[in-house]
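Exercise 3.2. Students should predict the tertiary structure of the chain below and write it as structure tokens, then compare their answer with the key that follows.

Predict this chain's 3D structure.
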Amino acid sequence: SMYRSEWVDRGYPSTCASASAAPPPPDGFVRVYHLCEAGYAVANIEKNRLKVATFADANDPFELSVFYSRDPAQRLRLKAFIDDVARRYGIVCFSEDWLDPTLWSHYGHQHRGIALGFDIAEHVLLPVKYQPQRIPFPVGPVADHVDQFLGTKYASWAYERERRIMVELTKAERETVKLPTGDRELFFEKFSGEVRLREVIVGPLCGEDVVALRAKVNSLHSDVTTFKARLADKFFSVVPDEPTVPPRKP
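Answer key:
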């Protein structure tokens, strides 16, 4: 199919979902996908940004405690470490592919959402390690453990094939939203030379019109492929809906 051999040449598995729809990333970049509700995805496209998840939003309480300790003094150190990291850092989460229907169920608003494909500079991405057990909190300088803390999840999440951008909240774009519970500060990572939008994939049950959305995306961003996804016929996977895939540019 259209670009598959090029993806394989770049070291991607031949099964990757976008290989029949969009060109692969250039050297030094990794293609990853951020799934979210359609309305948020369109706002992200319009405002050139991605929402940063803070620890207040974490959907897996164990993410906050990759480390553990049984020693009371170490536990106090660990609590101080977690509070400090949670105050200073957020993360933007991506998956290496978008073909797993479970991802669409969890993060793609039950298949009604949109996946945004990005080329992200390799050095910016934190690979996520999946572990069956928690790790004793190391003695010694805590600064060395931030990557490990932000880049470890429980083994049963491994299907997500997650990669993350670690964001220092002091450097993020901010926006205050008024909520019934009071003002809440949101943080955003801007699209940049290191975070480039490349694909917009309309979920199988998403109501967005793919032609209208493509026109909007093309008016705001260059070199982005917009198409719709569908459920595969023979496999439990989500794949490009071929009639909506733009023809390959000569």
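Discussion points: Residues 72-88 form the longest helix (17 residues). The chain has a mean pLDDT of 90.
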